[in-house]
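Protocol step 4 of 6: record predicted structures for both targets in the notebook before any analysis. Target 1:
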Amino acid sequence: MPHSVPVPPTGFQALILCGPGVSLNTFTSNPEEFPKALVPIANRPMVWYPLDWCYRMGIINITLITPPTSRAPLEAALSQNPHLTSLPAPSPSVLAPADLTFTTGTAELLRLPEVQACIKSDFVVLPCDLICDIPGESLLEAWMVTEGALGGSTAGSGARNAREAKLVGMAGEKSGRRGGLGIWYQTKDREESVKGEVTDFVATAPLEEDEAPVVCPPTDGPVSIRYGLSKLVLAMPMDSLKERMEEQKGFLVRHSLMRKHARVKMLNTYRDAHIYLFPYWAKEMASRNEKFESISEDLIGWWAKAGWQAGLGDKLGLREVFKPKDEGVGESGSHDGDTLEEEIDLQGMSTTKTGAAPSTADGTTVHHEPHEHRFASRVNTSTTLDAAPESITESNKLTIPPILAYVHPSQPSAPLIRRVDSSALLLSVSLRLAKLESIEEVGRTAASPFAHAQKIAYPAGVAQRCTVTKNDCLLAENVTVEEKCVIKESVVGANCHIASGARLTRCLLMDGAVVGERCQLTGCIIGRRSKIGRESVLKDCEVQDGNVVPDETDAKNEKFMVFEGLEEDGDDEDMDAGEDFEEGGDEMEL
């Protein structure tokens, strides 16, 4: 039975990026037949998790963006896979832009004409490999309360012409409203944490007292998300930061950042979840900046800097985005009625802020002067200072709506959020989900949204004289287990066969896999329709789809592949936002 769907937010839409999965190339070497979005996580297709998350938060206008070569298998899965067909209606649409390739950057993707035409309102961008147990409606509520503005969520829907759509979509930018929201999560000391997981460098500054939502004291539940919001001031992959520090012989911080924000928290063990809540105008920003290749590093990173670096907003073309030359002037030269909303002080009307003047990008306002000087004197600063132009006046200064950050708590009991873009994470997250109590055990109301109906979907296929630890195992439909087998902390896909005497510990078997007699598998991932020869001993190995491992094979930390269809090297960020693109420098030539 599908989850109940709350009332959807008007006009809000979701874009799910379904790329090739270079870091999972053992199982995605042929994306034309089996793209990354269909790789199973705990016996469900990967794309099921972000789709289910969107439906649970009330977003039903969902578009899957994939290269043309992967369109056919993705559409077939949406119409045939029982997990995907059980999702609420309407079914998501599949968009396959003609110029989209497996190496296209995420920001480049947003500039494609088909994607630009697809975005008609405020939107959320997600990767297909997202596992998120944070209530999506709470994130959406936090964005709407803190950053939303009147009429902004219906841009383009029902507008009479392109100019009207732009005016409706530009509600509140002048007052510093309708910014963005990104999510970061802790990668260390969690049950599903793995060694060597990719991390990002993120720096945040607290909201001012007149900017913070009225949420006190912090409590559990949806309200806690609003309490945990902060301003994003820097964001980049840790690899890019390390390269920059080697080139510059240190970590250089601009004076303008110190003048703008007296307190900055810098984190290096967190990772960008690639969940972005964007206002409608963000697509225009992406379209104007052809040098942007990555959403996470370029679009988000430069947007965050524009909030405190003088003149950067103009270089990014934001003045033209927020204040078009023909703004408010109709064909007859008079102001249209549609621009009335532009003249309203939306920030002053807010019930969550005191109505203080918005922050600007010129860096002239200084708070906590003594503390700032003490902090700035202890850090290395770049030789180029950001002196605010004296020619800037009250009438022409540019207000940049902030990009906010929600840094997910690091407590072990915090809701699960993870990006599954490597084999190690595929195994660890699948085993974590296998420990969830089934709906049969605790009931639908108390069960996790990721819980299965039963831990063992086909009990008749399990022989009596075998051991299966039900509390940490997950066996799908039509799985047959012969006598004297031992299965502990493992996930077994549909139609798998495990011969007598086999032992499985911390393993993931995909659909149709066959394990021979007296095999011993530990920490292995076995691909679809592959076969493990009898009396084989494998530890921490990966077996490609359809591969046959010979009898009595003894291996450790090996990949059994017929061929490698994709290279592991190349751009650090592919179309599904699996890795972050490395582009150095605090300066950008536009």
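Target 2:
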Amino acid sequence: MAARDTWQRGQRCGWPLARAKLPILRWLPHYSLAWLQSDLMAGLTVGLTVVPQALAYAEVAGLPLQYGLYSSFMGCFVYCFLGTAKDVTLGPTAIMSLLVSSYAFHQPVYAILLTFLSGSIQLAMGLLHLGFLLDFISCPVIKGFTSAASITISFNQVKNILGLQGIPRQFFLQVYETLRRIGETRAGDTVLGLACLAALAGLRVMKSHLPRAACVEPLAARVSHLIVWTSATARNALVVLFAGLVAYSFQVMGSQPLTLTGSIPQGLPPFQLPHFSMATPNGTIPFQTMVEDMGVGLAVVPLMGLLETVAIAKAFASQNDYRIDPNQELLAMGFANILGSFVSSYPITGSFGRTAVNAQSGVCTPAGGLITGTLVLLSLAYLTSLFYYIPKAALAAVIISAMVPMFDAGIFRRLWRVKRLDLVPLCVTFLLCFWEVQYGIVAGVLVSGILLLYSIARPAVKVSEGDVLLVQPGSSLHFPAIECLRDTVCSYALTASPPRSIILDCCHISSIDYTVVVGLRELLQELHKHGLSLAFCSLQEPVLQVLLSADLEGFQHFSSREEAELCRGAEAGARGEAPSTSSSESLLLPEGLTQ
């Protein structure tokens, strides 16, 4: 009996924990046939999008095209069990592919090891609940990075639109070489590439202006609406299929004016541990050297992957009225990348475009990812021979079409109107990303951090003049700010005519540290030398406890500003100081800032 009771208690305790760590247990018991129909349609639609995009993004990453497909199925399966957002799809993206091209040096072994290490870091962050670190990457830095990435990735594909070979990957050299060799343009690639771009743009506009189909409409109208909607949603697959048919037709006729993708190995990737060293003609590169080569990429890649996934998940959760667990998302990303490295995947993250397609297709649960992943596996097993005829210009058009909407030109105007100082990290990130992506991101984060630290070190201070001087810091006090506060208080107290005592209004101060306590002790002593006093009012309980524990000589505090002013005014009258005939306020901002 005791053993049975113990087992039942364990079941009651273990089930909530299992539901928390395996979100699939929350919705699977309620799964229905209606959900299955919606998930099946959404999974197929996303699958038709992911296959051509995977091939195109592998080109961006500088890897053989099959690695794009290798990276497109494991995330779908893992997220079905561990993800908390029904809409999110994991896989290769343009941003992550650009980062991989910078840190994997176009070597699959490096890319796969980067996947394993990034997943391990993400998993550790999830277990330690370190998702808050993403909050230190500000919106201007993200916007600067994505806007620069949209330009660099798009221009990187111009060579395929023009049919040029041997163009370097560094952005400025790329621009120079493309313009220098513009006369070598292949007419076939250019015509097909521009036609694909026009078709993709037209289908995108068609979808955005497509009205909703009403249930009362005739069956033929609803079927027509479904056909048009499906065609516009799966536009990438349709355009690539059309371009492949054109290329195959030329091949049959015995002439080929197009640059083709070429042979892609058929079959599923082997399930194996990633290689922790790499054999080269000059010897073996050990694990330590590979890690040193990847350098800052081991921080940038996992952080940007998490940032992209969590941002997308939060956006669609808000839009579709459900909640996500950010730390669980970190666990899902970590497991997806670790297991992905066993099937030769390069780092993956949430895809905004495919997540939007998933949501618009009416997906009900993460089970839609099982359908998408299965479709990718079937493509690898049976269809790779057909990918030979896909023109590179068509894949380039798919990438450019996906990248153009990512450039947010309006962010510059909005920041100029709202907070001009935020243009600094935006522009630093934007410009340096054209040189090297990692330099742009790191520099943007550093500039944002400096601006944040400056605001902490130089908080705004409001000074109200009257019988006594009322000084009100605009935010919490930390050790970099105490010298600034001391200088402000002393300059106002001692230069006033006559010199006046100070009331420090602490209503905005929620915490202080030991250095601040030391600075306040020195301020009390300095004012006391000149026959002036310093009183505190509106102290919050944690701050009051710290100051009482410090046992400051001459420490006085009042519960409200009115009580402090009344008491200090009475003291000033008792000393025979002339009352002030006017009252004014001034707001001191950090040096270099304007209101």
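Step 5 preliminary note on target 2. Confidence is low (pLDDT under 50) at residues 6-13, 578-584, 589-595. The beta strands are 90-91, 278-280, 283-285, 349-350, 461-465, 469-473, 502-505, 534-537, 557-558, 584-588.
Proceed to step 6 after PI sign-off.
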